[in-house]
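Note to self: keep these together.
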Amino acid sequence: MLVVLKSNYEELSREAARIVANSIRQNPEVRLGLATGSTTIGVYRELVRLHRDEALNFSRVVTFNLDEYLGISPEHPQSFRHFMTEHFFSHVNLQPRNIHIPDGTISGDYEKYCAGYEAEIQSAGGIDLQILGIGRNGHIGFNEPTSSFASKTRLKVLSKATVEDNRKFFGAGEKMPRLAITMGIGTILSTRRVLMLATGAAKAGAVAKAIEGPLTASVTASALQLHPDAIAIVDEEAAAELKQKDYYRDVMEMTALFTPGKLS
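Structure:
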């Protein structure tokens, strides 16, 4: 996994957006895998700026979101559909027919629905560039600890740690969803390139385990060590527990010197 160290959240966001924008310029029909959460807000903000100020064109881009809570409507302020609309979709020229997000309102036939979402990804040609965050317990998507590295899109029970982390986004007395539809680790590993983003001291332990720890289902982000083109972009706080920070900086300098455009 290539590790890119940035000083702060703003630099991290600009670097991730630059990679996404270059992918769109190289292939206007690129298939993007999208994530939600506070870490991605800066990336979407910068992509919106590039669309507005530099005419970055999303009209032929196809998107697939990683996950969605089960049991809340798309209009719910904490649904991931609402998040994407607020921070990204409503500000760029993506075509509605090219936007795919798991449906959190389904009831019954979950396996059939999830298999259908997986099939949509495959029929589109697979995902070219997948954006990921990382949870405090090292999960990616809603692939909680003990998830299989071969898993595909499915219904997943949220861990206690994830529920505790996300409960603050829901109103007092409002029921927090305990289930979600999520792409599987196998789905993520089948993408052509992965960007894992991490910011803040609270993610430092998870980042160190994912990048430098052993492959383990207890830290599902560690599966990205198996991916042939995975990039972790982390700020200084999130990188605090990495033991090889100087090495990662040296690798970045050598990559920039000898392989221009490697991160484009």
